[in-house]
Specification:
- This protein is α+β, with helices and mostly antiparallel strands.
- It contains nine helices and 30 strands.
- It has a seven-stranded parallel beta sheet, sandwiched between helices. Strands 13-14-15-16 form a four-stranded antiparallel beta sheet. It has a four-stranded antiparallel beta sheet with strand order 17-18-19-20, with no helix packed on it.
- A hairpin with a 6-residue loop joins strand 18 and strand 19.
- It has two domains: 350 residues, Rossmann fold, CATH 3.40.50; 218 residues, Methylamine Dehydrogenase, Chain H, CATH 2.130.10.
- 56% of the residues are buried.
- Helix 7 runs antiparallel to helix 9.
Length: 601
Amino acid sequence: MIKFCLILAIFLTTPFAVFARVPNDEYFSELWHLQKIKAVEAWNISIGSKEVIVAVLDSGIDLDHPDLKDNLWKNEKESPFDNIDNDKNGYADDFQGWDFVSDDNDPSPTEEGASNTDALIHGTVIAGIIGSKGGNSIGVVGVNWDVKLMPVRVIDSAGTGQSDKVAKGIRYAVSNGADVINLSFTGTVDNQDLSQAVEYAYKAGVVVVAAVGNDPDGGVDMSKSPIYPACSKGANGEDTVIGVSASDENDDKANFSNYGASCTDIAAPGTNIVSTLLFNPSDIRFEDAYGGYWSGTSVAAPIVSGAAALLRSVYPNLSVDSIRSILKLSVDPLNMSDSVLRAQMGSGRLNIANAFEIAKQFATDVASSQQVSPQVMNSESAGVIVAGSAAGSAPRVAVMDYSGTVSKNWFAYAEAFLGGVNVAIGDVDADGAPEIITGAGAGGGPHVRVFSLDGTLESQFFAYDQTNRSGIFVSVADANSDGRADIIVSQGSGGSSEVRVFDSRGTLFASVSPFGTDQRGAIRASAGDLNNDGKAEIVASRSRGYSPVVRVLDLSGKLILEFNAYAPLFLGGVNVSVSDIDADGKDEIVTGTGAGGGPHV
């Protein structure tokens, strides 16, 4: 088996002072890297989301750390300590991740024989850089204040790992819904199993970020001596990994950082980084919960992973290639006199505030394809298209004709809300004129609003618990055959398992759980009369991280039909709609791929 070694950073035990609390995390003033990448400005747009999962493949994470425990991923489909593989993923009791070194369900740092203290600490350092809890008055803050950190242990206590276990760890992270995977270790051999696992993640829409490695003699030119997995490519030469080099406080190349244009996409701060540490007050080696100063591409990579996660908190449908392009376009130039070497360090040093500005442009096409609901009116009115704004923009609804001319637009929710607006259109009050139904996107409450075409609010209600912030999706169909359209509502990731059907006044008259009661949201649903029996059926699919199964149920919840809309291994999510597209009197199911899929309808 090929061995991988942690890119162990330089750890100085010098204590550091407590400075002003900005935001209010105790050691924020020590986190120079966040100021450098303009994280503070980016936090005006998003501080992260518990819907975004970042898998940390490393030496394990301190599961009890006071600044990490609130941001740790939990496998909601698994019951702990019953020795049963409840979610049938091949790993019994993996309710908090998996240890591929010891092959057990405890992914915290573990000592096996010869141990390296820095190796034991390493994974907790990486996790803290990505997502140490923000705004809690203690310790440090990650690039994301809120996120889900998935612990996947693939490096042992000596700081080495096996390629087959890393590959298994990557596949585990993908199958359990990771949005981003961080790899802060390197090897010198291109292992097929590992490269295929990375490509598997890439094709599933998961962003894989890897450190390019360190060398004490000024760094290695990876165009001559490739480093893996940073230099891994897909079977057809695809760039499946975002390779990260390290810069210093002066935006110069960190003297130890490897380089090479074919493997390096971007630079990020990688010197004198303060983060969370493995914390055990009863062990003198681990009696500090926080510390520095760490240096290495190992600590630069999680800054980029954190940035990718922050982007996905606002723009969840961006593809891997789009995120790579956005990050590379966001950069500030490196301050290097050697222009040839500067070009080998990636496009420049990360600027996450710029990335959000650029992401707005990239998100436009994605949002319009997934959030625009066209509806042709009857002969008494002109055809219109209704569009809801994408995440990251003010929550507007626009009404336009088929030439694209906007006749009306308004705010569906408070102007400051940036989670996006999902829309549907139908005659929900049987008055002969269509209404526009809106649902607040991720971060908003389960707030359904019904507007006339001129923007007049006609009714509103909450479809689920008002405290839930998973976002909702809306569609319309005459579910109970009473001659008026009904409102079908489902929730985003972390929300209810139920698809609910309401009338225009918000009266609930049907509820089904298409994928079982333990499914935590992430469901897209529509309805229509698929068999021309005068009764509507519910059609449901799931978002990214799940197989592309579409299920059809009656209003009692009885399963009528299920099928794979795309290849079974595709995990990018499926969007679903129902319409009589061939005018034969029967509705058809129309599907589209989610993040990571092609334009496949």
